[in-house]
Description:
Distance between the termini: 9 Å
CATH class of the domain at 11-198: Mainly Alpha
Strand order of the largest sheet: 1-2
Number of helices: 20
CATH architecture of the domain at 11-198: Up-down Bundle
Amino acid sequence: MNVTTTGNAPRERRVPTLVMACVGVFVAYLPVTTVSASLPAIQRALNTSTAQLSWVSVAFVLPMAALILTAGVFGDVHGRKKVFQAGLAFSGLGALIALCAQSIEVVWAGQAFAGLGAAALLPTTLALISHAVPDPRERGKFIGVWATSLIAALAFGPVIAGVILDHFTWRWLYLLPVPASLLALVVSTKLLTDSRAPGTRRLDWPGQLTSALAITALVYGIIEGGANSFTDTKVMLALFTAVVASVAFVLVERHSSSPMLDLTLFRSPSFTATALIAMISFLGLIGFFFALSLYFGVVQQLSTLESAWRLLMVCIVPLVLGVPMGRLVHRVSPRVLITGGLLLAAVSLLSLTTIGANTSFGSLAWRLALLGLGVSFVLTPMTATAVSSVPFHQAGMAAAANNAFRQLGAALGPAVLGTLLSSRAVDALPGHLTAAGLDGATVRRVTETADAGGLSAVGRLRLGADTPHVLGALSQAFIDSLQLCLIAAAVLTLLAAAVGFVLLRRPRQSAPSAAGPAASAQGPGTPDQPTADIRTAAGPQATAPR
């Protein structure tokens, strides 16, 4: 069986491992932006309500956020290559189901399978890299390329969606992941070396069940509360369940002999910082992208492809700087890189509060590029620091945890900022309609439409000569709410910067050890002092794959 528990992967295996990891993360993240950019087309084709449409994205995000930690454990116990290949299979199957969908419920099913695949791919791609490149200094370069692939999927997803929607139906969005997943699955059989976590780690079913329940209940409660009311019985029950399940998870993990998430990892200030930064910053940034895409569609009336070119400005800089940033990770303090990047992102978000309905692409471009510069200083160092700030044998667990916190923030971002955006716009709309000179009956009709179907439903109203005035009032109300969302996103980003400034520190690397079993008996080192040589963690008896 081609499984190893050491970090002594042959050097010639490193490049193939990196290639497969990049393909995996690209396949995992591609549905995030391609589908999000295509929601209006899906709504028109399947004649769905706004509530039904919102669950298209949620059906993908929920299993991804809830099962990332579980997938990391399965990889550590049963082999990361196997879980990686299972992730590719689920991603391809999910895309195939959605490709054949004739109803919104089948699209949900396809999205759920694709989310399950992403949950398997994200932690295992990082764990495979950590296994192949045990030296944290050299690993940073590889993680830089990995992060570039992630950004590439987010960047080109809307462009791919725009091109497809200009020439074909929305179903063809799901065609590309099918052959991509199948081809990667076949190629990985030859190129990848399997690995497991050293030691006797076992599956932690109580921890897996309580964590999945906590995350699912929290995301569901936030989304449904924003769409309806937080005083709704089912919403309050979901949030109460999330609290109870979270407490149960902590208690279970504290007493587990083989925890899914070793809570002692949080003794490392750097690991704690990266977890909090991942959740807080992605909550603000993904929420911002959600609001900005609505701005392009509702206010500026741009097509999917026109919006995609504008959103691409955020991703251009991280794409260019991804690999060089990986080389800076162990030359410049993570505190400087991550905190500085978050401050740049906050400045960019605040500068966007001055945009209006007719703001030109040129005026937006430099602000979005500045945001991309800030993101490029955060993503790679944050991921590399999370993995390097823990003992080597817990790298898979750290990668899974960092991804879980990031996806939790990404899931909550559109829900939290989307709720803020919608409620503020609906509240401001009557005033702008009245200021536009519309009569009371028209104001009531438009307001009731906004309450029932959201802002997009107002944009589809046809009221004869009053239509331009209604659209103008809608734009002004949306801009009022967008400014509030931008301020909220900037505050969240500044909060993440404060966390980084206080908690981040450069991990102290221990010298390579040739002590063999003695070193192994002493354990793999304390948090923030990871073992640089895998012999310290595994002992000389561990051998490379044959």
